[in-house]
Structure formats: structure tokens, C-alpha cells
Amino acid sequence: MYGFMSIRFTAVATAIFAAVAGASVRAATLTGSVQSDGRPLAGAMVTAIDGAQKLRDTVYTDAQGRFTLRVAFSGPMTVRARAPYYKDAAQQLTLAAEGQRDFSFHLERHSVAEELSQSLPASAQLTALSWSSASSREAFISQCNYCHQVGNELTRSPREKNAWQSTVQRMEGYFALLTNSEAKEITRTLADGFTGKPVAAIEEHPYQPELAHAKVREWVVGDAMTFIHDAEVGADEHLYGADEGHDVIWHLDRATGKVESYAEPDIDLPQGGVFSGVQLPIGVFTGKHGPHSLAQGRDGRFWITNALSSTLASFDPSTKEFHLYDVGRTHLYPHTVRIDAEGIVWFTIVASNEVARFDPRTAKFTIISLPHNGFWHWVSDTFFPYVLKIAAWFPAQNLQLAVSHHKWADQGRNAFSFPYGIDVNPTDGSIWYAKLYAHKIGRIDPRTLQVREFDTPLKGPRRLRFDPQGNLWIPAFDEGGLMKFDPKTERFETFRLPLLAHNEYEVPYALNVQPATGDVWITSNMSDRIFRFRPQSRTFVTYPMPTRVTWLRDLVFTKDGGVCSSSSNLPAYGIEGGLASFVCLYPDGEEGHDAAAPTSPHARR
Amino acid sequence: MPSLQMLAMYTVITVMLLPLLLFFSIPFLLASVAFNVVSAIWLDQPVRRILASGVAALGIAPAYDTYLSPRPIYTRLFTGEPVELGASLLSIALTWVLIGLVAEVLARRWRLRRVPNRK
After folding, report:
1. For residues B116 and A140, what is the distance between their CA atoms, to the nearest angstrom?
2. pLDDT, average across residues A539-543
3. CB A399 to CB B8 under 8 A?
4. What are the extents of the domains in chain B?
5. How close is the nearest chain B Cα to the Cα of A286, in Å?
6. What is the C-alpha separation between A431 and A439, in angstroms, rounded?
7. What distance in Å separates residue A390's CA from the closest CA in chain B?
8. A605 pLDDT tier (thresholds 50, 70, 90)
9. Domains and CATH numbers, chain A
10. Residue B116 to residues B103, B110, B111: CA-CA distances in angstroms?
11. Do A509 and A463 meet the contact criterion of CB atoms below 8 Å apart?
């Protein structure tokens, strides 16, 4: 444990709003319709963007093409209507507090193939890629899509094979675990596929009536290099986000829109922390800790996994104090963190194939080594920490790529197990984790620490969560699926996520189960949508996101019905608008929240 | 990256993956030993050792890929990977010298060990 208490409290108020206490005013209201050729467009997204472009409010049109949007700001703003297959339409206006405006949008259908293609999401652009083998396609999905979309405007520009080769090699330095043949095949496929020619627009966007009630609010946070990996809702109903790139915790008061950031204390490690030998994403990973995941304990303290410094941090939101606890530098990449009913902090340690148990009362760690699942995994678990130690002699030179058996033994991602998501079974307190590359889930008895594992029917189990009845829901990242596991019967059920077109795919990164409704909310990430799965009817509702390149990680719930996350495509400048954000989707609207909404700084002048 | 640091990195990588290089070179090491035994009929010991070291060097001498990962040159030629001629010749020459030195050291040790046994 580090014996210092950091009080480096950096209130980098990004001035989304002036946040003058008690100065909030009532929201403005926009009403109207979205049509094309005289016909109403159902499910179109109407977004109001404040004058400072820091806050975006979005609603969907109903079956008659009508909308009512109560915006959380007043003053100058841009109002945009967007619908698939149609050109965006936007209007600039200035609204006084409590002002109202009624107007109509008339959208023009795309008639130029290139423009239409440009408007399609990454999932559609990816259909331009022609894979010579299923295995290389699987490697691409598993290793290239977990940090960012490929196929969005930033990543689909035509390049020569040599340029793609250096890009792929750079991504390998960022921990894309590819064999040489996979790297070669991905390079060829990207060079041959992304030629700039338009892709066929065959997506279908059926209207779902649930959209008419929903609202999306996005708070822009940080700069183009901000990387808010995970978000969590605090007991104060504020959002907190771990910025893995810059060693800060972001804090958003949803009611006032005030954003602050708190810097983690310094540590005796070089930039990149334990991973200083690895060439981390340029300009994004500039810190030493790499805060990755966070969860709040009953005493109010957040527990944060610092992936790069192999530490666990506590953060007290009332005093803004951090405290660091050293996990040990051979325990590589503390990952997802959850807290059980007794206040014990559990987290996966992804690159060492371990789960850690931390008791805040005694400040003691217990490291649980998970089954190796084969010889090459054993090699990784045993030697990889030392490889990284040696690699650190040569900062950012990627020595590990030269010596790692994932390359020379042609193992790729199969050289690692990667225990990833973790959750606590609410019915018996057992701890369950997902092994991303071993395609397993496992159970840890919290008292005996005995481990038992199960093979998953779909590949790429990622961030799993329990429902209140004790069923485990697991996103299958590699296969675009959803799995349900009943620990009592030890049986799986699988579901396919809905696609926009038959030749597309989805990469569900995380999910969460809304305790009140039992609905399973799932990130999609290739098509800028969020899924809501209703277990009773076994049906999906899909919510299109208003911002292109929406890449979400942990989903969390607010008491006022919001489903929130952080938009964390890596890098943030690949997101439409070029900045990261906190995102909340209110499926039943945002009643009671708008009334206390703040005004925009422009309106105050 | 400064060239000295790069040299150090190449050295560390090569040492770390030496077991792998030796594994790949087993056929050449066997051929080297066989040559050393068979050529005893017509060649003197120093010449035999130099030539046998050369055979071993052909199997061990590494070529480095874009990740700086070493593998014996001959395996890269087998799999059709690009190998630079100049770098390969340098690698073989260096490896040859190193193996020759190691062989000399081992031979001396072996001779020293045999002398007291005869007493």
C-alpha cells in the first residue's frame, strides 16, 4: 500500500455550464415533425446541440413522424434531424429559457451512392471486406474491434498495403494479439476492401414504437484524446468515469451538467506504468496508472482498477482523496471490478489469468490463480510478466512482440486466457468471471476460493452480469450473440443479436440487467445502437444512437430510469464531433429531470 | 532509437529466444557433429572445428522480421519470407564466430577434464 493520500484534486471544469449554484432555468421545448415527400418519417432522430456543442439532447419521432424535445439548455442551438437513407437537415435557432418552437423538417433521400454510403455505420462498411478464411475474419473481429470501430470515417480511408501493414503492426503494439499470418491476411483484406467505393445500402431499420418515448442525452467530456473506459453511477446519481489515458476520474453532475476531473496521485513508474516497454496508443495513453473500471462501495468510496500500474485505487468523492494499494507488478492489467454484498472488492487481472479479492477492512489482497487451460496459456501466465519487465528496459519499443509465443508459436490470441468481466451472483454471493479468449466462464466460491469453469457455447464471453434471479447474462463478442446461463441447471441459452443487414455483424462488449424490469441492455458498437432484450417475450428493441461512432462499454442504471455509459471509441477523435462523452438513454423519457436542467453559458450572457 | 540501444535490444531478444533458435537448428547441429566425427579421417582438429561450427551456424544464424523476432535464416527461406542477403551473411558470419569461440572454450574444458582422468 502506498502510504500517501493524494489530494491532487484537479477541478478541470470543462465549463459545459457556468454551474452557478441555483441558477438553473427551465428547459426549452421543441416540437414538430420530420417528413419526406409529404410522408412522416417514424423513428427519425431529432437532436438539439447547445451553442457550445457540449450537450446534445435527442428524441425519436413517433409513428406519425412527430416529436417533442425538451432540451436541457436554452440560448443558441442547432437542431438536427437524422434518419437512415436520408440527408441530415439542421436549423440554427436561439431559444429563451422556457421558450417553445414548433417546426418541421423535410428530409431529402440520398440520391448519390457515395453520400449514402458515407452515411452508413461501420457495420455496413465492413461488408466491403472479403475474407479468405473464417479464422482471419474471427481474428479481425476479436482483435481489431475491441478498441474501436473499423469502417468508420477515420478507419476506412483507402490506403496502400504498406500503409495498412504499418497500421496493423502499430495495433499489434497496442495489444492486438495476432499471428503473423493473421496480420498479413488482415492487412491484405483491409487494403483490398477499403477502396473508397460505396457499399451497397441494404440495411433495414424497422420502426419500433418504444422509440417514441425514449430520449438520449450526451455530455461531451474532455478532449480528443480522452479515453473514458468505464462509467459508473454514484450513490449521488452523478456519473463517474475512469479515463484510462490520462489517469483522471471524470465526474458529471447530470442535474447541473457540471463536469470535473480528479487526477490520480503520481507513482514511481514511467509513463505506461508496468507496460512502459509497450508502445501504447500515441497521445492517448499518457499516464502511469491507466484507470480502467470502477465500482462504488457502501461507504461511498469508489474502487478503481489501475491497469497500467497494477494498483487498486480508492477514491472518496466527498474528500476527493485517492489511496493506492499495490497489487504487485507481476499481476498484469487489473481489469473489471465489482463489489460483493460484504464489501469485498473483486477484480479480474486480465493478462495474468487471475482474479483478486481485496478486503478494504484489512487492505489485504488474495490472488486467485485461475486454471491455465492448456500449455501455451501456462507459458503466458508464467513468463509474460517477466517478458514485460525485460521489455521495460527499452521503453515503447515493443520487445514483447519479438519474443512472445503468441507470435513465434503461432498462437495469436489463443496464447492467453484473459479473464475479463466479473460479477457477483446475488442469490449465493459466488463470484463469476468470463475468460474472453479461452471461451469459458468460471465460478469462484467466495469462502473456499475453489474455482470451477464451464465452456461457453458462443465465443468471446466478455462483460457478464447477473439478473436479480441469479441468471448470468453474457455477451458473446466474437459471435454477436447473447448467452444466458442458469447456474442451478448449468445450462446455456443463446440468442443472436439483431443485425441491420444479413451480411453485417455486431460486437457486444458489455451488458447489464435492469433490476426493476429484468430487461437486458446490451452495447452493439459496430452500428451505433443499444439493444434492449426482453427475456419474457424474447424480443429485442434497438435504439439507434444519434452520434456516429458510438462505442460503449459498461452500461449502468440511474434511479431516474437512465441507461448510461461512456462513449469510448479509441481514439475519441474518431467519434463524430471528435470528443468523448457520457451518454444516457432514458427509454421512458426523462420526466422530472428536464425541469431542473441548467441553461447554456450562452444564454447567461 | 540510438544504435547502441538497438544493438542491446537485438542482443536481449536473441538471448531470450536462443532456446528456440537451438531447437530449430537441431538438424544442423546433428550434421555438424556428424561432420566433425566423419572428417576426423582427413582433417586436422582446428580445421574440423571451424568447418563444423560453420555447419551449425548455417542452422542457427537468425534473420529478424519486422517485429525483430529472430528465426534461423533457413526456416525463413523455407517458408518464403523475405531475407536480406547482406544481413544474412553478416548474421551467419557473426554466428559462426560465436559458435567457433564456444566450441573452442568447450573443447579446452573437455581437454582439461580428460587430463586428470588419465593420471
Report:
1. 64
2. 98
3. no
4. 3-118
5. 20
6. 17
7. 9
8. very low
9. 28-110 (2.60.40.1120), 121-193 (1.10.760.10)
10. 21, 11, 9
11. yes
Nearest-by-Cβ selection for A402 from B1, B8, B69 = B69
A582 and A564 in contact (C-beta within 8 Å)?
Answer: yes
- ipTM for the predicted complex: 0.89
- Which uninterrupted H or E stretch holds A144? helix A134-144
Give the span between the Cα atoms of A252 and A262, in whole angstroms: 11
Say whether pTM exceeds 0.80. Answer: yes
Contact A318, A406 (CB under 8 A): no
Identity of the residue numbered A118:
Q
Provide the pLDDT confidence category of residue A6 given band limits of 50, 70 and 90: very low
Q: Check if the beta carbon of residue A122 is closer than 8 Å to that of residue A147.
A: no
> Taking chain A, what is the end-to-end CA distance rounded to the nearest angstrom?
49
pLDDT at A403 over 90: yes
Name the residue facing A407 among B5, B8, B69 (closest C-beta): B69
Q: Residue A278: what residue type?
A: V
CA distance A103 to chain B (A): 59
- Residues of chain A positioned with their CB less than 8 A from the CB of B65: 180
Q: At what angle do helices A180-193 and A134-144 cross, to 10 degrees?
A: 90
Average pLDDT, chain A: 92
Burial (CB count within 10 angstroms: exposed 0-12, middle 13-18, buried 19+), residue A281: buried
In A567-582, which positions are buried (b, 16+ CB within 10 angstroms) versus exposed (e)? bbbbbbbbbbbebbbb
Per-residue model confidence (pLDDT) at position B1: 63
Decide if A162 touches B, using CB distance below 8 A.
Answer: no
| DSSP structural state of residue A150 | S
Residues on chain B touching A394 (C-beta within 8 angstroms): 1, 5, 8-9, 12
In terms of CA atoms, which chain A residue is nearest residue B17? A403
For B71, nearest residue in chain A (alpha carbons): A408
Closest Cα of chain B to A146: distance in Å? 22
* Whether A355 contacts A368, CB under 8 Å: yes
| Beta-carbon separation of A408 and B17 below 8 A | yes
- A408 and B71 in contact by Cβ < 8 A? yes
Q: Can you give the pLDDT at residue A598?
A: 39
d(CA A526, CA B48): 64
Nearest CB to B12: which of A172, A390, A407? A390
The pLDDT of A249-253, averaged and rounded, is 98
CA distance A45 to A82: 5
- CA-based nearest residue to A305, from A417, A422, A219: A422
Q: Nearest chain B Cα to A277, which residue? A: B9
Q: How far apart are CA A162 and CA A282, in angstroms?
A: 20
The 10s digit of each residue's pLDDT in A358-386 is: 999 999 999 999 999 999 999 999 999 99
Between CA A130 and CA A252 the distance in angstroms is 43
Of B1, B16, B70, which is closest to A397 when you measure between CB atoms?
B1
**How big is the CA angle at A559 (ends A554 and A561), to the nearest 5 degrees?**
75
Q: Say if strands A89-95 and A248-252 run parallel, antiparallel, or are unpaired.
A: unpaired
The b-or-e profile of A424-433 (16+ CB within 10 A means b, else e) is bbeeeebbbb
Q: Mean pLDDT throughout B9-25? A: 97
User: Which of B9, B65, B69 is facing A394, going by the closest CB pair?
Assistant: B9
Mean local confidence (pLDDT), A480-502: 98
Of A143, A153, A121, A148, whose CA–CA distance to A187 is shortest?
A143
On whether any CB of chain B is under 8 Å from the CB of A393, the answer is yes
